[in-house]
Amino acid sequence: LSIFLSLLVPAHTTRSPDCGGILTPSGLRYRKCRHPHAESVLRKDLMVPPAPDPSPASPNSRSQIISVKVDKFSLTLIPDTGMRLNIEVDLGITSAPSTTKEMRLSIQADLHVDMNPEGNLELVTSDCKPTLEEVQSTEEMDRSAPHKSSGSDVDKQINVEKICLEVSRLLLFPNERLMSLAAPFPITPSCQVQYLPLAAPMYSDQGIIISLQTTFQVAGTVIPLPVSPVPFSMPEPARSSPSHLILAFSEHFYTSLFSALEESGALNVSLLSSLTTATLAERITQMGSLFQEDLPVVLQAVTRSSPHVVLEEDKAIVKLFLTAQIGTGSSLFQSFLSVNVDVTARLHLSVADTRMIISVAAIEDIELSLATSDVGPILAALLEELFLPTIREEVPAQINVVLRQGVFLPHIASFTYSDVNITIHKDYVLIPCNLQLEARNG
After folding, report:
1. In what residue span(s) does the Lipid-binding serum glycoprotein C-terminal domain sit (predicted)?
2. pLDDT band at 3 (very low <50, low <70, confident <90, very high)
3. Which of 159, 253, 342, 346 is the most buried (most CB within 10 A)?
């Protein structure tokens, strides 16, 4: 009964990760352009001139912040919990033209990444503790050492409770960038890839661990992919990594990628042979009666089943299963022979900016077999001799044309990757790299 019911009820897609990343403590310390952004947000509201005091007895007694400078900005990892943000800000505060105080505003906030109802990752604050210290006063130079201001002094100089609101505004910019993580990226004109977070990240000594599930769209429709035989979990490095980010991709990810390309028709190729019907007739006498004129011989190869990628230590292999129709003509193709072609090719992986460049480096094995028996199986060896050179040369070349634009890696807008090191292991690929903020967005 349960088997019968399972045939009636549509199967739900299992959400399981096939890739992910670890943002390391080194990545959290990558601080290019944090100071300018923090200063602009804090300066925008803290330097607003105070409203006029309605009391006629003290018309100009209220303090005003005349300068905001971020001196320190750090984000540290708290394993199993989240992150801690520490900001130290030097403030210049004046209550009269001749009196200026230098204050030190220290902000400590606990942050973590949640998953919002829309399925996007979102940086939120759970605790915020601002403190204010006086550094120097033009009227009291002998009190130049930092000390805690009294509660009344703090109230006069700055609204400390407002600071936690400013911290929340600091998170608006990175949250806009986090949303771009789940944006669809093009692979070919008709095929797109999208990386969807499965849950809020986890925090370990190694860094912030994010698990992602890849989906592929062909002509705007999400396509079903082969089910991963082995659940994938983000492999943690045995020791701390100096890289900012460690990306990991499962074997299933690469098989899904080639399956999506196969679904979109991108792996179907047309191969122009060096043979003609006349030269072919010299070896296969039956061809002489089929064609009255000498015509070029063409192979039109289409995938007959889904490709498969195998990852071994320092080696990535793709297996393609094609059916080649051998015939003549380009606009009006006339097939006279059908051949199954199984190709095993080695892959080369590299990274440029935020794209993984995959190319067929070399064909390691080709098997040809007759798909039809209308000419007889004795021709198999002859077909290999005649068409193997064309297949060996043209199949990698045409697939590389499809792949040359690369496949976008999971990334956040404005950032690219540098100092990339790719390591192929059994069942997965590790890509340690550093973050690089694009200069035009600095």
Report:
1. 239-433
2. very low
3. 253
